[in-house]
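Chapter review: from sequence to fold.
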Amino acid sequence: MPESAPKFKTDSLSAPRSSTLPPLPNGVHPFIPPFWLRNQLVQTTLASLKFRKRGRNPMLEAGTDQILACEDGVRLKGNYSPHPDNKALVIFLHGWEGSQDSTYVVTAGRRVYERGASVFRLNYRDHGDSHDLNEGLFYSTLFNEVFDAVKQAAKLADGAPVYIVGFSLGGNFALRIARSLRDLSIRNLKHIFAISPVVDPWGAAPLIDLNPLYQRYFLKKWTASLRKKQALFPKLYDFREILAQKTVLGMTERLLPAYSEFPDMKSYFDSYRVDKRDLENCPVPISLVTAADDGIIPVENLLGLKLNYKARRIIHAHGGHNGFFQSLTGPTWYDDYIEQVINEDAA
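The token string follows.
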């Protein structure tokens, strides 16, 4: 019932002024888009527009699909594009209801591939064309299988340095991987990039439904995914009541008690939150990249994180969600930044 969903704390939805943002770390170039590209909705929309994928893409030509056997019998699908030079391996983690073929993943992957890096693009459960691989539904809490898949993908590096790039929910997974590195390890992992990462899902969740553009986008994606899952496993799932809801929170509120271990939305969202001190002792360098005008991720969430000297908190005044476009067709600011970091590591 969308109307009965709990009230969220949304008293701080306006972005801080650029003058109140922390200074950029040393060596990090500012993102200053042309005036006509500064609107956060324009930046956010450009991230997913398919025209950006046009033209020859040697990364896609070199790619082969991989099925990774993870713990508890889970199977996850990815795509591996080995580069003859293999200067690095970059593992990409997409956002919620994205996939290995999301525009922002394909274009960022093409950029690093053209610079000599191999690329692995992972799909989460029920993302991309992978709904048939597992009976169970996807939840953002399924960290262990994603971590397992990333570790397997990292072994493909064959001694080359490894980088993880996560977008939105993928940024959340990337930060949880960073948190886990206090006790676990991924061989040759050199840097983790979290672009527009979800830090506090309970605080960010209502923002999707507050904006008609975001709401329409995610409702279309999620309902299509659930219909596909139901068609594949009709004896397990009947989503008719869930699909009748008109908001993302309304669907979530109905889905969780029916098909998960979570009794309510808060317990679910809090279970994959990145807490204030989670990244304080991460042994691997992290770059957290966000925009003060992001309409989905409150910038205060990133400002509150305690980081060590190896981490960079990069907050631009503009950029929207997964945007950071310097021109209409790219490259994005983070394309240049990722290349900069890889080159610095190789020097």
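Two observations follow directly from the output. The first strand starts at residue 64 and ends at 69. The radius of gyration is 19 Å.
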